[in-house]
Amino acid sequence: MHKKNRLLALVEQKLVPLGIQVFTGSPALIEVLGQTGFDFVMIDTEHSTTNARALEDLIRTAELAGLIPYVRIPDLHSEVDARRAVEAGAEGLFLPLVQSVDDIKRVADFVFIPPKGRRGICPATRAARYNISQFNQYIEWNNAEIALVPMIENAGGVEHVEEICAHPDVKMLVFAPGDLSVQLGEGLQGMRSPKVQSAYRKVLDAAARHNVTMIGGPVDNPTPEACRKAFEDGVRIFTLGLDMLGFRRFCEQTVAALDAGVAGTGFKRAPSPQSGFRD
Fold first, then answer.
1. Dihedral, 64, 213, 2, 143 alpha carbons, nearest 10
2. DSSP annotation of 125
3. In the chain, where the domains are located
4. CATH number of 6-248
5. What is the mean pLDDT of the chain?
6. Is the pLDDT of residue 269 over 90?
7. Tell me: the pLDDT tens digits for 115-168?
8. Residue among 195, 112, 210, 124 at smallest CA distance from 159
9. What is the CB neighbour count within 10 angstroms for residue 161?
10. Where are the alpha helices (DSSP H) in the chain?
């Protein structure tokens, strides 16, 4: 009996997993995440500079820190990037800008090994434990447990969400209101936009009908109230925050604390030339 997908196993136990998006490519920050109560990481390769060599070391660090490693691939057409992510040890792939079920089928071909997909075999990879004698067991695990996680962040994805959720390899789904808001011409309104709220309800309903687990939560500014609301909506796996933005928030709060602390003392803080956006 092979080991089940760990993230879905937590949900089956009625546990609520917590993850974060990793953009910095910092092993030290990943270690801190493991020490502070996170359960998984989504290592970004769509918008960050993380390359294939760095990716493997970040996944290795995540596992040593007790975290379940997932990777957001850069696009839906790069067979090499998808294959390298799973061969490095990712237990699932976040799929950006999914438009239709055809996108899921394409990536499934990239990551699953025949007869399920068309990925070429290589036992000399980290995911296969560099082991040819047990490679058949690895193929069985890979084809049964690697998770494909569509990100619904454009109008096409919303329109075809029913077929996307019906795909047998889709067990989890992300609703991304930020990108969707911009794609729908709503600017940065996000969940404040009635159009985005309507799309959210459609996605939630489709996921519930097909027993697909929703991933989400208040990314930018998590509060207990916002987390409870997401849970009541049906979110069962939370991704809260981005490591880069979290560090920026810490820096801003630190600067503000000192500004307030020296106010009225007759001293002033030195102005920062970098505080604005390309002033």
1. -100
2. S
3. 6-248
4. 3.20.20.60
5. 94
6. no
7. 999 999 999 999 999 999 999 999 999 999 999 999 999 999 999 999 999 999
8. 195
9. 26
10. 6-12, 27-35, 52-64, 79-88, 101-111, 135-145, 155-159, 161-166, 177-183, 194-209, 224-233, 243-262
> What helix, strand, coil percent values describe the chain, rounded to 5?
45, 15, 40
In this structure, the number of other CB atoms found within 10 A of the CB of residue 234 comes to: 15
Show contacts of 225-231: CB within 8 Å, 24+ apart: 231/16
Residue 85 pLDDT class (50, 70, 90 cuts): very high
Q: CA–CA separation, 191 vs 175, rounded Å?
A: 11
CA distance 41 to 177: 20
Average pLDDT over residues 19-34: 97
Q: How far apart are CA 233 and CA 267, in angstroms?
A: 50
CA–CA separation, 49 vs 31, rounded Å? 20
| pLDDT tens-digit readout, 47-58 | 999 998 999 999
What whole-number distance in Å separates Cα of residue 83 and Cα of residue 80? 5
With 50 as the cut, is the pLDDT of residue 1 above it?
no
